[in-house]
Specification:
- It is a single chain.
- With 111 residues, the protein is an all-alpha fold.
- It has one domain.
- It contains six helices and no strands.
- Helix 1 (4-10) runs antiparallel to helix 2 and helix 2 (19-27) crosses helix 5 (83-92).
- The longest helix is centred in the middle third of the chain and has 20 residues, at 36-55.
- It is elongated, with a radius of gyration of 15 Å.
- The two termini are 20 Å apart.
């Protein structure tokens, strides 16, 4: 699968890779009509909504879990045919190894 935007996004030191952007570009292989900007805007909104919960909590992981699973009603077993669910799975670690392997492969190609 040839994905020049993904390749460009990951051909940099690991600390400089925008993981959400790279994951969205990677997801375009399966969802060619996916609009990364739309999903990045949604992630930014969720981050802004989550910030006060994290700031007020002594346990940020619990605050994050409440936000995702209670407020947003994420369900790890819901229909995975939607791109946002696949993106969440990727970011949450289900596909992280595959993404990391793809990033490594693209970085090696650069050298």
């Amino acid at each position: 699968m040839d994905n020049p935007e993904f390749r460009f996004a990951v051909q940099r030191p690991a600390a400089e890779i925008d993981l959400a952007w790279a994951a969205l570009l990677y997801a375009r292989d399966a969802y060619p009509d996916l609009d990364p900007v739309l999903y990045l805007n949604q992630l930014d909104k969720w981050a802004a909504d989550l910030q006060p919960h994290i700031a007020a909590s002594i346990d940020p992981i619990t605050a994050l879990n409440r936000f995702l699973f209670d407020d947003l009603r994420f369900d790890v077993w819901q229909d995975r045919s939607q791109p946002v669910v696949e993106l969440w799975s990727l970011i949450a670690g289900v596909g992280e190894q595959r993404l990391q392997e793809r990033i490594h492969s693209e970085q090696c190609r650069k050298q």
